[in-house]
């Protein structure tokens, strides 16, 4: 009884014989599925078999020996050279026994008699072939897995070592020797250069692939970078984060700046060519200042990370730390950030595209004049957008905003988001119970009027007590708190627009008096209406 192989994919089989009847009998009589095999193609001679082998990638080839054009022995010899992972068995008649013996000497797994053809014996031989192939496949798979795990373990050790270096922690001599073996070969203090290698728009690059594939992508790039670095100079690669790594080059002290620059440029050219060829992505280099010996490595690595940030403001793919010092000023105190936040958020809350774009222009003028650190700028803007809540952003939007793209591209992304029609305040509560949704829509339409629970309940034909219970469950706020919060939100919009005097707002948004409005506004925002208005409305 031949046991099925349900848990594994079937072995792919190619049948080769110049006799049609032999092929037909093998296909129809042998219980391939029971054997855990699948006939993917047939061929009439060795030449056809090689073509089919390249196309269908079989794991077992069952071949006759005596055939026109290319016989079985020549086919087996060619297979062993061009497709070393393919195994084969031979079909033979009694008179071809010497040929079959030669085939077995050439590592054929078995030989099958076709005259007379005994299906049971053929299945028994094929079963033995299948067991051998599966055992070899398992061993190869384990070997590849072990190699990959060792390599990944090596990269994880290097990632942790980089983290320790960047935090200024002590690393022992033994670990330094393992990370930088060329230190032992240096007779004098070498020149050490730290380079931050980062993919351009790396977040969007990784977002193109399933999450399960991303570690393998990162691993492949690290391996390629490691091999290219080692071909050009003494050096190593330390992983930082997905799509980003630190390259450490060790150059002889007698080599001048021109030689060092040439090696860095060649390294960038090689990596760029490889990444563009296989992944269609460019790579940015941030280069720290050259240091004498390994002791200054943490400093040059920190400089390299900062240098890579220059790509936000300046064109080009190679940037040095001196560029960061001159192109990125970042001398901005929190008070300036707060003023900018108040202005931009007020504009972005507007229902009109022009007012939102005016806020964007203010942000652009601020960035052009002050040159803040790109990473800090992106974090601030993402926080403001999230807290504004008037613009619906999806996962891809957040990825694009946080990406290491150039400034022009980043502002174009931000403009695209801001010109979208903002969500109305009531639309932010979509997906509620239909009756509660009606209640919320009614509240937003009548904020300036006397809104009571009874009035809203009558509008949606519901018992007030039951509405109060459902409303709290659906929105998280009780009825009165919800109405008050929406009125204060509307007051902020009016204050930012400066279209009304403060005392005019109370009646417009449903408060019975201006003093009561001021008291509630300060309780919720921490500011009086006048203080809030000063922070968001430009002077003059």
Automatic annotation (TrEMBL):
Highest taxon in the source lineage: Bacteria
Keyword annotations of the record: Cytoplasm, DNA-binding, Phosphoprotein, Transcription, Transcription regulation, Two-component regulatory system
Main location: cytoplasm
Any coiled-coil regions, as ranges: none
One Pfam family, short name: GGDEF_2
GO biological process assignments: phosphorelay signal transduction system
Record Gene3D superfamilies: 3.40.50.2300, Homeodomain-like (1.10.10.60)
Assigned GO CC terms: cytoplasm
Occurrences of domain HTH araC/xylS-type (ranges): 437-535
InterPro entries: CdaR_GGDEF, CheY-like_superfamily, Homeodomain-like_sf, HptR, HTH_AraC, Sig_transdc_resp-reg_receiver
Signal peptide: none
GO MF annotation list: DNA-binding transcription factor activity; sequence-specific DNA binding
Location in or out of the cell: Cytoplasm
Domain Response regulatory: 12-129
The keyword Transcription is annotated on this UniProt entry: yes
Modified residues annotated as 4-aspartylphosphate in this record: 64
Name of this protein: DNA-binding response regulator
